[in-house]
Amino acid sequence: NAVSSNDQRYKEYSSAPDNVFGKWRFERVLLDFKPDIVFDIRDFWMNSYQAKSVFRPFFNWVVMPTVDSAPQQEGWLDIYSQAEAVLGYSEWAGKILLQQSNNRIKYVSEASPGVDFEVFKPLNKNKCKESLGIPEDAIIVGSVMRNQKRKLLPDLFAAFRTLLNKYRDENNDIGKNIFLYLHTSYPDMGWDIPALLKENGISNRVLFTYHCKSCEKTHASTFTHAIKHCPFCQNEACRFPSSNAGVSNDQLSIIYNAFDIYVQYAICEGLGIPQLEAASCGIPICSVDYSAMSEVTSKLEAYKVSYALFKELETSAMRAVPNDSDLLRILYEYYNLDNKQKATIKQNIRQKILDNYSWDKTAETIMSVFDQFEPKNNWHEPLTIYPDKKVPSDLSNKEFIKFLVYEVINDPYLWKTNFIQEMIKALDDGYENKSGSINNYNRQTAVKVLETYLNNKNYFEQVRSGSVHLKDDFIAYANKLR
């Protein structure tokens, strides 16, 4: 799907923000593959264009959105309600979708991602520490989170500082050996990690993953710089892992196994897969008792941190602020358990993950959804003829758009979309707010938008019927690049 900046099609590719998520190739893929089912497991802004595809009457649409908090935006719910089936990352997500949509959404089931139990499994803790360069007597509170706004690194650092103070005041041996280990990215779109370390005075007590781009080896270290010297190959090539250049699953399993307890500290989660991976390694987990995190901890009988809610400006969703004192209590109590009690907790959480989060279970759920569908339409049906009708002059904005959709474009599927409802709202308001930019909006604007849609539809209908050929053979182009 992606296009190099020196490719002649880059201007078209970069002309709309959702092209990066496949919009500009979607109709062509449909024409090539002629699917009975389109299944998308992404966020709203990554797949909403599919609801207004010119070929929407020809496929069953199944979506699995990331529902990480409530309430969900009305526009999102409208889009989801047009799908023939909706799956959820969690049962909690399904309840939110059904409640907010008044059961309009065809929610089917939870299809939570699973874990590779053969990779993420209990390993020898001391050997894992040794491979990462961590002292054998180190006690590790660990977390695996991308450095984003919603991941509460400032709160986690502040809570850890308080924990260190508590152990120091008690002159406790645990306090001399306890470390926070954060597997994260830096620099990234989130927090200023060096500033947070300095602010809390914990620079020498927080470990990070460094991964060498030269020799591919991984080690743990306190923060030095974003790039540092590799102790293995001696090159200046060690960086924080990122979404573009991460560690392998085998390396990540070693990191989890170096932890004594895992903490998920975020304002919300669609699931929080690192929790599952840590639990699969037999590591006790502790998470905020909100959204899917609450469901995961319930199923795994794990530790829950209480919270308060606030309304986020950007999304109008309720987000969680965890109770730091609750986290400290849990960590303090866990580290004071004897070895037999800790072993029981570890064995229990490994068994719970096996029972609840297997890929086989996920696959069975998805297959059962697919099996219920029959093909909707013959992809080779004759072309629809769009009549040239004069638009009556005495119509309201809603009636005006409805006439264009039904009588000119002749596309009832389009009428159901949030795309059309937003267009009517923009006409009533006289403006549209697009990506933070306020623009005037009138009937001429609406006609131009729908005219583009109609021209696009007519073109692809002609391709579908075989009367014209695609302007570029993108399938052959993609195969050539393999």
Task: Briefly summarize what is shown.
It contains 20 helices and 17 strands. It has 482 residues and is an alpha/beta fold. α16 runs parallel beside α19.
* Cα separation of the termini: 13 Å
Shape: elongated
Give the number of helices: 20
The beta-strand count equals 17
Report the uncertain regions.
none
Radius of gyration, in Å, reads 26 Å
SS-based structural class? Answer: alpha/beta
Can you give the helix content as a percent range? Answer: 40-55%
Mean pLDDT figure: 91
Characterize the main sheet.
Answer: 9 strands, mixed
Percent range for β-strand residues: 15-25%
What does the secondary structure layout of this molecule look like, with pairings?
Blueprint (H helix, E strand, L loop, with lengths): L9 H4 L9 H11 L3 E4 L3 H4 L12 E4 L10 H8 L3 E4 L2 H10 L6 E4 L14 H8 L6 E6 L8 H18 L2 H5 E6 L9 H8 L5 E7 L5 E5 L4 E2 L9 E2 L9 H10 L2 E4 L8 H8 L4 E4 L2 H10 L2 E3 L1 E5 L6 E5 L1 H12 L3 H18 L2 H12 L26 H12 L3 H4 L2 H12 L1 E4 L2 E4 L2 H23 L8 H8 L1
Parallel strand pairs: 1-2, 2-3, 3-4, 5-6, 5-11, 6-7, 11-12, 12-13
Antiparallel strand pairs: 7-8, 7-10, 9-10, 14-15, 16-17
Helix pairs in contact: 6-10, 7-9, 7-13, 16-19
